Model the fold of this input.
Amino acid sequence: FMAISKTISDQVATEIERRLGAEEAARRWHGHFHLGSELDQARHGGRPSAEVRELFRSAAPTYLMVSTIEPRKNHAYLLDAFERLWAQGSPARLCIIGRIGWKCDDLIARIRRHPELSRRLFMINDANDASLEHAYSHARALVFPSHVEGFGLPLVEARTRDCLVIA
Done:
């Protein structure tokens, strides 16, 4: 079994032992590898979408969340936090980039009917690599409130572009 982090590899080992017993688990190999980022290749082809270029033209600070939209990524918590900022008059903007995943129908409905959508709240579900590169390069910071992530590729992508990370 291969995992994207030592944490996940250790969890797999524990689960294998729980399910199969120590003796049988000892016969199974598992390990992990380190994630990297190849977004620098985006500079050589493609352009950021007009939507992404326009979004980051604003002088207002734009915070970025990049991940598949699903419960363990904790988007609802992040949206709650930004709603508190907006209630206090903050101009901060939140841009969520990621494909729609599973068990998130209520959250997607909440975002799509949100009064700040297309003002201070943005959701992009089909960003290409050039758009993602542009977003990391122009965001105030990546915000990453995930419950369970393992390694977290967006953290690597953000830091390799000198984008601050709040995790």
User: Anything to note?
Assistant: The helical segments are 6-20, 22-26, 50-55, 75-87, 105-112, 129-138, 153-159. The two ends are 28 Å apart (CA to CA). The chain has seven helices and seven strands.
